Structure formats: structure tokens, C-alpha cells
Amino acid sequence: MTDSHVTRRTLLRYGAYGAGAAALAGTAASWDRLTGADIPGRDDGSLVVATLGPAYGPEAIRTLTEGFKKVHPDIKLRINAVQATDWSDFFAKILTQIAAGTAPDLVYVATEGVQLFAQRLGVALDKWVKRDAAELREYFADVHPSLVESMMYEGSLYQLPVEFNAADMYLNDQVLKRAAAGFPAADWTRDDFTELLRDMKKSSGSQFTPYFWTNRLWGGVVPWLFANGTNLLAESKAPGGAWLWDGFYPSAERQGRGGGFRWTTPQATDARVEESYDYLASLIQEDLCTRPEGGNGQNLIGVFSTGRVGVTPAGGFWAGGLHLAGMEPGSFDVQYFPRWRTQRMQFGAAGYALLRTSKMQDEAWEFIKFAARRDTLMRLFETNQTTPARRSMLTADRYREIGPRHWQVFYDTLDKFPDTGPIPAPPQVAEVEQVLLKHTGTALSSRRSVGPALRRMQRDLEKAMERDV
Amino acid sequence: MTNTQVPDVRPPRATAASAPPEAPVRLSARDRGTRLLATLFLAPTIVGIVVFTVVPIVGSLVLSLFHWNVIDSPRWAGAANYREVFTDSTVLVSFRNTLVFMVLAVALQLLIALTLALAVNGRMPMWLRSVFRSAFFFPLVLSAASISVVMKYLFNQDFGVVNWALGLIGIAPVPWLTSENSAMAAVILVYVWQQFGFSFLLFVGGLNNIPKEIHEAASLDGATGLRKHLHVTLPLLSPTLLVATVVGVINALQVFEQPYVLTDGGPGDSTRTVVMVIYESAFEQLRFGEASAVGVLLFVLIMAVTALQFRLSRRFVHYQ
């Protein structure tokens, strides 16, 4: 470039541009701006705990942080309530955080993700449980072994369950009265259930559906499969776990326990699975139940509380939900899921999983213990938004003001039916769930569709289970 | 903007008479300054496009050649992800669904938008015209997810307002979201209801740009009503129609929120779209390589469809 054409004026203009640009750059550089260090809890030495946002409001977060600070003033704690529509969405967001290098130390994980986290991301708690056995004896004495077993994977324990929900049957009292039907007995059968739906339908108008259910892994088709003595995937127990059972549970409760559940071979074409789907298809055909609707049943509370639905499967979490929706304690009640070939019921539990990437594993263990303490859970679950994993917390006092009358059903689902087990959730759970929901939708379009749809489900499940996570 | 505000930065064109063609063209200091200034102004946009568009596209392309589950390091896969995609019935069905959705949704969206634009552009008080314009555009500024949640309630088979209203005139409840036959129709209706406002505004603008004299001349020649619209308005509106179609097609091929919230892709796979498959493969099933391969194929499809539209436009679009 020659300078023969650069006039003084041009030079001054470029000088001004340069000065302007430098001033802008300088100003920008001096501004306070967000960096990775500004992400709450990141790089400030805090123990970061990721929880499911909708279940952990500001009050719950305060309970955990302030309570933990009193016990461990030396450990900084940050609760990161991740907003998500369901567990699958929650896990997706946690995995994105892990991919971004901002993994939390602890993640609140439900049955849906226990094996996925255990296999790929989690740290077994065995060494700490053994070390603090004396301190934990009271906890295990208060928590049903089925819940603990559901948190084990290949012989090791990965979480201490703090809550669970079994699929029991909620009944609307107003609808029962309208149908002149009595409250069902604890040992009611599938046929009793069908008759009750027919009575409800006869006594109600066209804008009424006797049985409502949501198409999802927890509480959808699976409770019917369990009641019919089958499962979506062949279920067995992993060896091991004796270190825990022998150390914490009396011999009667150790019986048949192992190192956690294994869900392996798909069995969607099993005769009993087909029979279960055929039964649900017949209910739909008779207009006694809804077609499978996806989602998390957001609109269910509204239609149940206004008497447009008679019966629906839900867990202890619904007691608080119905109370908030304005239902009086005597206007609804709960009973066990009806008996078919068995009265085995299904549940999902949740607790905190410790991630391998955590650099604060000892501190994280202290939080796990704190979160499972009775006084912590008493404060955390004040509004009955779930069923506490501790048996001693389910008392008449807790349910006196909000109902239901038969609140004992929640924990007796475990105590009186010890074969009650977790929903099938292998490490490939995301794909398994998607396949289940997809083909359930088509299977129940008519009774003729059941067989072909289940064959397609079997094929897709086999493919899903062959994949490495 | 007038021409005087836009400096001509092109070098003076050399002619055979004034200078030999190979002679280097020397820019004046003023032109060099203007060019530098233009570059400075363009730089943020270019950097933005490179960082937020080019890099992710290249990243997806690279990732599609690896197996990656977020947790472990990526493993080379070569073309395996593409082979998997082409044999995965869910992916193939999602492409079919997306194409069906695109054709029906865009056609309906353009038809409604054009009809309403013509109606609003007719004889109508100015204030009423403003009311309609705002009302039709309003759904577009709302979140698609929020709208879909509300629509899910409205379309509920047993408790929804839509079936309740149909019941008043004796029509049996329609399983809008739970039947393979009607779920796609419901998703399209919700999508079009939200999206047609954009095409509507484009058409209103396009109609206003058509000189009144042409319509007057057509009227003098005896053209009336539909004939005038078909032979005068539509040809003159064709450039706007092209833009509306291209944007509509690109948006429709990337539809996600409505089917995700309304039906979760069901019943079966009947409303599962390509972007849903990408989301599910990546963030639910941790198969980022396959998800990227599907993303690359969708990118190619969008490019191909857009190129085809521009090619066809040469025959159908008339510029004044």
C-alpha cells in the first residue's frame, strides 16, 4: 500500500475510528459480565445438588439449605432446582450439564434413572454405608427393604430412598354415591373393578369417564401387567447385596432379596401381556376408560375433583394435590390396585445419586445422610406432595386434615404385599419407555390391534435392549 | 433510502477504449475507507453467522460420523450412523410425517392467510383493519409450547371444549389427539392457527404494494371479482407468495413444539416429526451421533426443497 493517497483528513478519520473502536473495546472489557464462574455454585467450592424443579419449591430449598448449614456449617451447599416436565426431561437436562462440564455433585434420581446413573455416572455408596452403619441403622429400620432394593444395582447401593409412590386406586366419593356403590374391599378383583366402572357409567352422563389413566411407564399399563403376574421385561435379581441385608434387616425381611433388579429380555408378546392389553382395550371399547393419553396427567386433578372421573391410579403424592385442588378429606379415598392373578403392585422411588465426577464425595455423602433424616423429611414433605420412604412418617395426624381415610394403603402396599416392586427401568429406560408409550397408543386403538402392536413393541424393545447406553 | 446515501464502492468499470482489460484498478482512498467501514459494520453479523450457524452445522456433520453418548469419549463410526438412520423405521416414518405435515400445513396456512389478507384489504374502516391485523398476528408472538398446552386441554377427547361444542350439535366426541387418523389433523390445525399471521402480514404488505392503477385498468377492461384476483392480484403478489412459501416450508420442516406437547409424537409414530426424533435420540437416548446424522439429512432436505422452490419460481413468479 502506498501512502500517496492518504490525505490528512483520511488519516484523521481512521484515527478517530481506531480511537472509537479502542474506547468501545476498553469499555466492554471493563464491564462486569457473566462468566462460567457466575453460574451458581460453580467453582466457589459449593456442593451442588440438582433436584427436580417442580417438586422442590423455594420453601423446600430453604429447608434443605438452612437445615444442612446447621449440621455442617463448613460445607457450602447450592440447590439447583432444574425445571423439567418429567423425569425423562430432567435427566436430559442433567446430562446436558454433564456434557457442558458443569456436572452437579448430587442428582435427585427416581427409579426411572437409577440404573442409568448407577451404570454410567454414579458412585456406589457401599463404603460409606458400611462406615456409618451405626448411624444408619435407624434409617433402614424405618424404610421398607423393597425401596432400598430398588436403589441397588449389581450388588451395590447407589441411593438412600427418601420418597416413593405406588400406584394405588383413588376413588371419587361423590361418584361412588351416585352409582350407589360401596367402597371396594382391600381384596377386590379385576372383575369387581369392571363392575364398579359399569355402575359408575350407568349413573353418570356422557361427559363422564369412569376410569382415567395416563400412558407412561409409572402408573400406565405396568400396574395391570404386575396384577396379571407379568412384566414388560423379564425380571430377576442380581446376586450380591448380602452385606446390606445381613447388616440392617431381620432375617424375615432379607428373604428373597438380592443385589438389585435386573430387567433383561423383552416379553411384550407374552400371553399375559397380551391379555392385559386386551382387557384395557375392552374397557375402552365399552367406553369405561379413556384412550391412552400421553403426558403427566396435568388435567386429571381438575376432572377428578369435579366428578367427571370416578377412578384413577395414583400415589401418595395425589393426596396433597387433591387437597390443593380443593377436595375435602371425605370426598375421595384410596384402595389397593385390584387383584387379577396377583395383587403385586408397582412403585417408583427417589433419592440422591452421587456422581463420579464430584470432587466433594465425602461432603456429598453427608448431604445424602442429612436428606434421609426423619426431621429433614418431616419438614420437606409437610404438604403430602409424595409418600415418605420412612414408614414412621405415615401417621393419622399427617392425613387427618387432608385425607384420604385409608391413608394406611400407601405404606401397606409395601408391608402387606412384599412382592410389590419397582417399575421396569433398565439402563436403556429412555428408549424402553418411548417404545412402550408408542405401541401402547396403537395397541389400544381396537382389540384387533393388540396382537400386531405388541409384536412391533417386542421387536423394538429387543432392539432397544441390544443397544449400549 | 436514496441512492445518494449508499456510496457506490464498485471500482470504475474499465472499457476497451479507455484502458486495457488487464490493467489493475486502483481504489481511491475514499473507496478504500468506505470498504473498510462496510467490512467493520458487517463483521459482527459475519462473526455471528460463523459462530452460531456455520460452526454448529460443521459440528453436526463431524458428530454424525461418531458414536457419542455424552458420558464417554466419542468413537469413530464412519457412515454407521447414516446406515442406522436409513434402516430405522421411526426415522423414516418421521420424515414421511414431516413431509406430509409440511405440504398440508403450508398449503392451509397460505390459503387462510391469503383469503384473510384479501378480505382485510377490501373495503373496511381503517380501525377495524388494524384490529384484524393485530388479532391475526397475535398468536405468532405467543410461545408455541404454551399454546400447545392450552390446545391440549381444548382438544381432550373426554373433557375438552371442542368436543363439548361438537356435542351441542349432535356430533360424537372426536379422539383428536388419541387416534392415528385425527392426531395429525389436530397438530396441523394448532400449528396453522399460530403461524398464519406471519404469511398474512406479508400478503397485506404485498397487496398494498400493487399499484391501484393496474386494478383500475383491469376493471376498465371488464375484469371482476375472482377473475381479477386470479389474473391480476395473484401474479403481482407472486414474489410475496414465494417468500411466504419458502419461509413457511422451512419452518414446517422444523416443527417440534406442537407435536411434542400435544401428542408426544403419538399415537404410535403418527405425529412424530424429524426434529422430535433428533431431540429424542440426542437428549433422551444419548445417541448424539445418530441425532446429528438425522439433523444433517434434514438440513439437506431443507436445502433441496428450498432450491427446488426457487427453481420453480422462475416460471411462476412475476416481478413488476
TrEMBL record, chain A:
- GO CC annotations on file: cell envelope
Q: Does the keyword Membrane apply?
A: no
> Where found, per UniProt?
Cell envelope
Pfam families linked to this entry = SBP_bac_1 (PF01547)
Q: What is its main location?
A: other
Listed transmembrane segments? none
Keywords, sorted A to Z: Signal, Transport
Could you tell me the superkingdom of the organism this chain comes from? Bacteria
Matching InterPro entries: Bact_solute-bd_prot1, SBP, TAT_signal
Alphabetized PANTHER family for the sequence: ARABINOSE-BINDING PROTEIN-RELATED, SN-GLYCEROL-3-PHOSPHATE-BINDING PERIPLASMIC PROTEIN UGPB
The similarity comment for this entry is: Belongs to the bacterial solute-binding protein 1 family.
- Protein name, as recorded: ABC transporter substrate-binding protein
From TrEMBL, chain B:
- Give the way it sits in the membrane: Multi-pass membrane protein
- All residue ranges annotated as the ABC transmembrane type-1 domain in the record: 95-309
Keywords, in A-Z order: Cell membrane, Membrane, Transmembrane, Transmembrane helix, Transport
Region feature (Disordered): 1-22
The answer, when asked if S-adenosyl-L-methionine is one of the entry's keywords, is no
GO terms (BP aspect): transmembrane transport
**Can you say where in the cell this protein is located?**
Cell membrane
Query: Does Ligase count among this protein's keywords?
Result: no
Q: Which GO terms describe its cellular component?
A: plasma membrane
Q: Supply the InterPro entries for this chain.
A: ABC_transporter_permease (IPR051393), MetI-like (IPR000515), MetI-like_sf (IPR035906)
Sequence intervals crossing the membrane: 36-66, 99-119, 131-155, 183-204, 236-256, 291-310
Question: SUPFAM superfamilies, per this entry?
Answer: MetI-like (SSF161098)
Family from the record? Belongs to the binding-protein-dependent transport system permease family.
What is the designated name of this protein? Sugar ABC transporter permease
- Taxonomy-wise, where does this protein's organism fall, top ranks first? Bacteria, Bacillati, Actinomycetota, Actinomycetes, Kitasatosporales
